[in-house]
Amino acid sequence: MVQYQQQLDRTFAALSDPTRRGILERLGRGRATVSELAEPFGISLTGLKKHVQVLEEADLVHTEKVGRTRWCSLGPQDLAEIQRWISGYRLMLDERLDRLGELLERTEGERT
Amino acid sequence: MTQEQAQTHVAAEGEREIVTERVFDAPHERVFQAFVDPELIVQWWGRRVDTTTIDKMDVREGGEWRFVTDAPDGQHAFRGVYRAIRPPEFLEQTFEWEGMRGHIVVESATFEDLGGRTKVTTRSLFHTGEERDGMLASGMETGASESYERLDELLASGTDD
């Protein structure tokens, strides 16, 4: 359980950065080299490698060196659960008050 | 259909909290009622895709609640305990998704009487700062679009079964 918590903390820390989320999003469409990843974010290769390392430590990304090229792909950590938790709660936060407003409008006059 | 009365304002507070504010065009007793009446709460609680069923809703301090939602991404259960109930001004409860046990959010709502209208301020205190940051980021940079994209994916994947 403690180990599971630590894993989650690492995952959340890794996900708290927009560039790292962007990397995951990109890798969701297929594997890429470090330089391919660095290009759209406009950051240095060194900077990108640091992000990849954080993601790799959280098992979110897997890297493999083939010849002189380092390929990155999505790692073994299943993001689905955490993403569902984060995006689900956030969506609820955004939507439920809208829905409450609609309910109050709909039921106006029905109740005192 | 009608134009939005007010947008929900979402902001970070401290290291682990998200605060939302919204003004409703209804007296605060009525707004408070929508939070504690089972018949009303199922009509707005959760995401738009959710159909909420109440398993347990014991609205008193220390009382438990458990809601089950049906959505294209499956059935989910949520539970918590009412911690403070002061009608019609304040409500506080814990929130936990059973799919992510131990990550308890403390949620509160303050109902401020604006003379026929009501300002509702909700606070969500997360388990960790990382969790809060992830939560905030998922809405702030990409707007709701990221969530909606995710939702589209869920809806699309749900059509297979």
State the CATH superfamily name of chain B: START domain
Question: What is the SS-derived class of chain A?
Answer: alpha+beta
Query: How far is it from the N-terminal to the C-terminal residue of chain A, by CA?
Result: 49 Å
Count of all domains of chain B:
1
Topology as H/E string of chain B? EEHHEEEEEEHH
Helicity of chain A, as a percent range: 55-70%
Kindly report the name of the CATH homologous superfamily of the domain at 2-77 in chain A: Winged helix-like DNA-binding domain superfamily/Winged helix DNA-binding domain
**What do we call the CATH topology of the domain at 2-77 in chain A?**
Arc Repressor Mutant, subunit A
> Strand share of the residues of chain B?
35-45%
The largest interface is: A-B, 39 and 50 residues
Q: What's the shape of chain A? A: elongated
Q: How many β-strand stretches of chain B?
A: 8
Low-confidence stretches of chain A: none
Terminal CA distance of chain B = 32 Å
Query: Cα-atom Rg of chain B, whole angstroms?
Result: 16 Å
Record the strand order, biggest sheet of chain A. 1-3-2
Oligomer: heterodimer
Q: What is the typical, i.e. mean, pLDDT of chain A?
A: 83
Q: Kindly state the mean pLDDT of chain B as a whole number?
A: 82
Task: Please render the helix and strand layout as text.
The complex is a heterodimer of chains A (112) and B (161).
Chain A: H1 2-15, H2 18-27, E1 32-33, H3 34-41, H4 45-57, E2 61-66, E3 69-74, H5 80-106
Antiparallel strand pairs in A: 1-3, 2-3
Chain B: E1 9-13, E2 17-24, H1 28-36, H2 38-41, E3 51-57, E4 64-71, E5 74-86, E6 90-97, E7 105-113, E8 118-125, H3 129-140, H4 145-158
Antiparallel strand pairs in B: 1-2, 2-8, 3-4, 4-5, 5-6, 6-7, 7-8
